[in-house]
Amino acid sequence: MGLRMSESAKPYFAMICLQFGYAGMNLVTKTVLDRGMSHYVLVAYRNAFATAAIAPFAFLSERKVRSKMTFSIFMHIFVLALLGPVIDQNLYYIGLKLTSPTFSTAVSNIVPAITFILDTLFRMERVEMRKVRCQVKVVGTLVTVVGSILMILHKGPFISSFRSQLTTASSPLAGDYLKATIFLLIASLSWASFFILQASTLKKYSAHLSLSTMVCFMGTLQSLALTFVMEHNPSPLNIGFDMNLLASAYAGIMSSSIAYYIQGLMMQRKGPVFVTAFNPLVVVIVSIMSFFVLGQGTYLGGGIGVVVLTVGVYTVLWAKHVDDDGEAICREDNTTLEAVKCCSGNNGLSIMPKIDEAHEDVETGKIKSEEKESSAVVVGFGCGFWF
After folding, report:
1. What region holds the EamA domain (predicted)?
2. What is the 8-class DSSP label of residue 344?
3. Does a structural domain hold residue 346?
4. Radius of gyration of the chain from Cα atoms?
5. Are the CB atoms for 85 and 47 separated by under 8 Å?
6. Distance between the two ends of the chain, CA-based, in angstroms?
7. What count of other Cβ atoms lies within 10 Å of the Cβ of residue 283?
8. Which residues of 108-265 form beta strands (DSSP E)?
């Protein structure tokens, strides 16, 4: 039982650790963007580092299991690179530069809701509203959205950090917030679409390390092309051994290569809704780190929104955990019934013959055999698979 609990806890532990990596990426990249680094260059270097980090592992570990490349799979990879590395990352960095890590991650909490809707529309996730766990999953998703809205719109009294006098930061303008919100919402839609397409692609191309490598490499090529078009000057690509290089390497290795690998692995086991359900934890981690480490104050509405977000995340995860337990029990029952069906004849019908019962005559003390006439009992076994 201990081993089983440990195995079942690994996906949750891996996804929580991944959110800490995303939180660190937000804080580091916000610093370099404020110092003037182009987000186009940051995205290009990020995906280049990601490709270099994950390619050797993909080449060595998946040489024998790598599927044949077809035009359909290549187009999936091309669109995945366009949705993730190009559209999502560039628009997210624009929103991050215009506002703050807390605001950007709060708006991005719409991703689980969008993923849940797309997952349901494409019939990758079954929603049976008559079941309590499905109702809880929907309510938890809505609570997560409400928490994000509270953090974005409701301010309330300002709560200053004990280190706020050590830091100076300019407050973004109202117009910047509106512009950033639009960019971040488009980025969230692109990111949610990336998860749906990635889950679909993994069914055709199961070598997730190789898939992640090719997505990062294709994203590097697309990002470089976009950089040359938008910058009109290759000089921004020249970076030295400074904070810009560190931010690019951290974002590429942690938030792209490792993240794509873990997400792809969890996508195969748990599905896209499980992967995106952890995204709201990023804003909780970022808010705490910004308050205590960076000395950035927060509004009361932000604190309330963090609490509501946490409740929504745990609600969705609980419902998903109940779903996983139900699927495991159903698979075990189906395996047992299928084994009985295969061993019994008559197309799954097991016929119990008449039973000859021996009993003792009370008067004579002799044992005599009496055949009890009983109708044959027919027992039918049926299996049903639930996806």
Report:
1. 12-152, 180-317
2. S
3. no
4. 28
5. yes
6. 26
7. 30
8. 158-159
pLDDT digits (tens, 9 = 90+) for 141-191: 788 778 777 777 766 676 655 544 444 444 555 567 788 888 998 999 999
Is there a domain that residue 385 lies in?
A: no
- Hey, what are 139's tokens? 């309510």
Contact in structure between 190 and 91 (CB atoms under 8 Å): yes
Q: How many CA atoms lie within 13 A of 11 on its CB side?
A: 22
DSSP state of 240: -
Q: Give me the number of domains the chain comprises.
A: 1
* pLDDT tens string 33-42: 999 899 999 9
Confirm whether 372 is domain-assigned: no
Q: Side chain identity at 123, as an amino acid letter?
A: R
User: Residue 295: which pLDDT band, with cuts at 50, 70 and 90?
Assistant: low
Residue in the structure block whose two tokens are 């024998």: 64
* Residue found under tokens 């991703």: 111
Structure tokens at 354: 């008449």
- Give the residues across from 368 on adjacent strands: 359
Collapsing DSSP to helix, strand or coil, 232 comes out as: coil
Write out the E strands in the chain: 158-159, 298-299, 349-352, 356-360, 367-371, 377-380
- In angstroms, the Cα distances linking 171 to 98, 296, 299 are 10, 11, 13
Name the 3-class secondary structure at 99: coil
Q: At CA 378, angle to CA 377 and CA 383, rounded to 5?
A: 145
For β-strands 367-371 and 158-159, DSSP reports them as unpaired
Backbone angles phi, psi at 379, to 5 degrees: -115, 125
| Pick from 115, 84, 95: nearest CA to 251 | 84
Residue 7, C-beta contacts closer than 8 angstroms, at least 6 positions apart: none
Of 20, 13, 14, the residue nearest 286 (C-alpha): 20
Of 22, 14, 23, the closest CA to residue 293 belongs to 23
Question: How many distinct helices (H) and strands (E) make up the chain?
Answer: 14, 6
Amino acid symbol at 126: R
pTM for the full predicted model: 0.74
- Which of 174, 209, 186, 166 is closest to 295 using CA atoms? 166
Q: DSSP readout, 37-77?
A: --HHHHHHHHHHHHHHHHHHHHHHHSTTTPPPP-HHHHHHH
Q: Does residue 319 contact residue 129 with C-beta atoms inside 8 Å?
A: no
The range of the structural domain enclosing residue 225 comes to 19-334
Tokens of 106: 């709060």
